[in-house]
Structures are given as C-alpha cells and as structure tokens.
Amino acid sequence: xxxxxxxxxxxxxxxxxxxxxxxxxxxxxxxxxxxxxxxxxxxxxxxxxxxxxxxxxxxxxxxxxxxxxxxxxxxxxxxxxxxxxxxxxxxxxxxxxxxxxxxxxxxx
Length: 108
Known about the structure:
There is one protein chain. The chain is α+β, with helices and mostly antiparallel strands. The chain has two helices and five strands. The protein has one domain. It has helices spanning 23-34, 93-100; strands at 10-13, 43-47, 53-59, 64-70, 88-91. It has a five-stranded mixed β-sheet with strand order 4-3-2-1-5.
C-alpha cells in the first residue's frame, strides 16, 4: 500500500517526461512547467514517452519520495486534459489507484 499525504491534491502531468531526470529536476519541472509544488502542496504523477513507466513524486515530511512503476504489459492511460493547453490534470485517489493498476476510468 502506498501512503500518500492525505491532504495533498494529486495531479498527472500530461506531457511525457525523460525518466533519467533527478529528483531535483522533476521538482523544478513540476514547479516551473506545471505550477505545482511537489515539496509542500502536491503529489505529481509523471509518465515516460511510451507510457510503460510512471513516477509519483511527493515530499512525505522527512524527504522527497519517488515511487517508480514499470508495467509488464500495456501502457498507462492518463485522463484527458480538461482545457486545451492544460499541462496537468487533477486526479482523485481512486483514479490514481486504477491508473497504477494499468488502467483508468475515463471521466464522463
């Protein structure tokens, strides 16, 4: 079971990210490109170019955490952008759980 900070909103970055990036580069990307603060107020999900891997980034109060998952088969399917030009989308904890299982319910 993944213990995420319960009071922090969850966001999925819609653009793929180079997974060779360090913790600090991902924090800076979240802040500068997405307007999200992974150190204090957000949990951010990133997916790689082919959609087979994801990283979940957040600060747990004692340090920066990255959870990394590679699917055996298939691709992570992120929800669609709410508005044209959105670079991230808010997701609910249940959506995150489904996504980490390798699928996600599309919003109506």
